[in-house]
């Protein structure tokens, strides 16, 4: 039934109807970024054509309209992840900035020498490097949860890593390289049994799983708009109110202050304490409309559609000679990572690009994971709501051709 519901969805994504190298575009790079529906593009257009103005500071009509629109976008995000309060949603540039914000605040307020932060081996660089920087500043250390060959977290090892020095767990909701969906409820519950807060990196999870922050009870969650049909340059950090109140600001400037004097400056209340400077208003509105777009079709229907594509792809692809799937966890997002014989991922990716197929090749910003797997990278096809089984057929055919050319 999923396929029927999404029959006309490609009409909402004009970019998909173009040809690349003379072939119809098959866009399978959705884990890197999704395309944007007309609803989002038109909302941004409408914002600049009708209400553009700086927010929060003006008494004039347009400024009030822009402020209302920006704050409505925050409420839309709040509802989407079921946060208790809208002020628990901080707008950022994306996942990377959200994690940097938190790492900065933790380094200056929470962490001291000898403290420990738990991350996992499958993290994206943006959930490793900010913590390494926080460790450098504070003298804390990183502890790494190992994974199994199939790409699942070793949960027993995870539990062994806790000590009285553990100050935070920061783990991805789902792996961008392997597709593994982690057992986030178990991760959070165990950390909380040791009074340790948890940040979940939702960059991949938000589109392919959805999120209810009250049900999962994570202390922090973040994602990038551009991976859920919204514009680039906008994302969010969710934090529980009591945590965000406790943490110091990230950047200083306008908007984030209550009062400034050379003797003493006081900070604004949430969420503005963490939003220094003029925000990305058009981005927030674009994100709001992307979430409305998801609501229009129903997120659960979209997730079911992606799962159907994943199973279809895995079944069709396994007949390709010498294919090796990387990441075979039981619970997976719509990501198929693989290698073709001994061929370098870049060679395969380059050949199928000439057939109009966009996949990602390389280490996917997860070098420690690739090192562990002993491979330089993978070829990654990742699906979204507008993809079809016939596009998968096209890719399978192209992969076979590429293989013949390279052999
Ligand atoms: N974490 C994960 C799991 C990701 O997939 C990505 C994007 N590839 C990021 C973090 C970083 O997201 P962004 O570049 O949008 O900040």
Describe the protein.
- By secondary structure, the chain is an alpha/beta fold.
- It folds into two domains: 2-30 and 298-406, Aspartate Aminotransferase, domain 1 (Alpha-Beta Complex), CATH 3.90.1150.10; 41-295, Aspartate Aminotransferase, domain 2 (3-Layer(aba) Sandwich), CATH 3.40.640.
- 40% of the residues lie in helices and 16% in strands.
- The chain contains 15 helices and 17 strands.
- The protein has helices at 2-5, 38-51, 61-80, 95-109, 129-138, 155-160, 184-193, 205-208, 213-216, 241-246, 281-297, 299-317, 345-353, 367-373, 389-406; strands at residues 19-20, 23-24, 26-27, 89-92, 116-120, 141-145, 166-172, 198-201, 220-224, 235-239, 257-260, 265-267, 323-325, 335-340, 357-358, 360-362, 378-382.
- The chain has a seven-stranded mixed β-sheet with strand order 4-10-9-8-7-5-6, sandwiched between helices. Strands 13-14-17-16 form a four-stranded antiparallel β-sheet, covered by helices on one side.
- Strand 1 and strand 2 (23-24) form a beta hairpin.
- It is globular, with a radius of gyration of 22 Å.
- It starts with a helix and ends with a helix.
- The mean pLDDT is 97.
- It binds 4'-deoxy-4'-aminopyridoxal-5'-phosphate.
Which properties best describe this structure?
single chain, 407 residues, alpha/beta, Aspartate Aminotransferase, domain 1, Aspartate Aminotransferase, domain 2, seven-stranded mixed beta sheet, four-stranded antiparallel beta sheet, globular, binds 4'-deoxy-4'-aminopyridoxal-5'-phosphate
């Amino acid at each position: 039934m999923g396929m029927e519901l999404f029959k006309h969805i490609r009409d909402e994504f004009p970019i998909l109807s173009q040809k690349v190298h003379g072939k119809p575009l098959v866009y399978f790079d959705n884990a890197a970024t999704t395309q944007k529906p007309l609803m989002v593009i038109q909302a941004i257009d409408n914002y600049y054509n009708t209400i553009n103005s700086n927010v929060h500071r003006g008494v004039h009509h347009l400024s009030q309209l822009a402020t209302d629109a920006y704050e409505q976008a925050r409420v839309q995000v709040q509802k989407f992840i079921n946060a208790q309060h809208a002020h628990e949603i901080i707008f950022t540039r994306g996942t990377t900035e959200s994690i940097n914000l938190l790492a900065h605040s933790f380094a200056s307020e929470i962490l001291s020498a000898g403290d420990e932060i738990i991350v996992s081996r499958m993290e994206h660089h943006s959930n490793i490097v900010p913590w390494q920087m926080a460790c450098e500043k504070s003298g804390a250390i990183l502890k790494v949860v190992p994974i199994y060959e199939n790409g699942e977290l070793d949960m027993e090892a995870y539990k062994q890593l806790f000590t009285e020095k553990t100050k935070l767990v920061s783990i991805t909701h789902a792996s961008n390289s392997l597709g593994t969906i982690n057992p986030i409820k178990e991760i959070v519950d165990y950390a909380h049994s040791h009074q340790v807060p948890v940040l979940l990196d939702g960059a991949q999870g938000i589109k392919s799983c959805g999120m209810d922050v009250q049900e999962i009870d994570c202390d922090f969650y973040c994602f990038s708009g551009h991976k859920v049909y919204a514009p680039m340059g906008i994302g969010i950090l969710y934090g529980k109110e009591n945590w965000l109140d406790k943490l110091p600001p990230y950047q200083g400037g306008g908007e984030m202050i209550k009062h400034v004097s050379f003797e003493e400056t006081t900070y604004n209340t949430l969420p503005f304490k963490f939003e220094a400077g003029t925000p990305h208003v058009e981005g927030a509105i674009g994100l709001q409309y992307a979430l409305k777009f998801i609501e229009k079709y129903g997120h659960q229907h979209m997730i079911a559609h992606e799962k159907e594509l994943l199973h279809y792809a895995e079944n069709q692809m396994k007949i390709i000679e010498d294919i090796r799937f990387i990441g075979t966890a039981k619970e997976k997002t719509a990501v198929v990572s693989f290698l073709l014989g001994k061929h370098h991922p870049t060679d395969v990716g380059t050949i199928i690009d000439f057939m109009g197929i966009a996949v990602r090749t390389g280490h996917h910003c997860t070098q420690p994971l690739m090192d562990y797997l002993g491979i330089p990278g993978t070829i990654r096809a990742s699906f979204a709501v507008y993809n079809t089984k016939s596009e998968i057929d096209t890719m399978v055919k192209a992969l076979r051709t590429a293989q013949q050319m390279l052999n």
